Amino acid sequence: MKKQKLETVVSFGLAFALAAALLVGCGEVSPETVTIEETMVPQAESVPELEAPAAEVEADMAVEQGVYEDANGWSVKYDPEVITVNNGGPISTFVYTGESAGTNMITASYNVDSDAKTAIDELAKEWGSAAQTHESVFPGTEDVTGYWAMLLPSSEGSGLYETAIARDYMDGYLLFEVTGHNCGDDSIDIPVSDALAGIIDSIEFKN
Hints:
The protein is of the alpha+beta class and 207 residues long. 25% of the residues lie in helices and 30% in strands. It contains five helices and ten strands; from the N terminus they run αααβββββαββββαβ.
């Protein structure tokens, strides 16, 4: 694709759920900008800036970021330092292994027993009256309808939250289920949500 960015595609879906899961209380911290005043240097003495070869840059990115390609024609990127990928046929899991509260993972599955909207409605029903559903563009596409279900964490209990995203795909539907837990410590919870949201935001399709 040239897929829509997280703030436009996932903003009121997974990103909203994960941000809300962080109990909304924390404010955003803007990256610090450092400005360096350049010293005037005669043109003849200026040193041209050297750029790393494209192949070298790509190799560095490959080391820093893992890529999972599924046999059903979709792929995602993930951070191999904190995400472990398990592939078991039609179901693949992306498990967060860094410091966290409880289980934090994404389960991706291809199913032919129903359609995407029905699957999401059934999940929302299982989650109870607190679950929210809506439709939006599916990540990694420009015009494919995605169906969303969200269960935000309650102020009491384990801090569990759930988000599910599905689309009609081939002869069935493709479903991504996010399961997360909050501990209330932003230094722990935010890296978890960033890692999981980054996977969803990176979804791409071959066709």
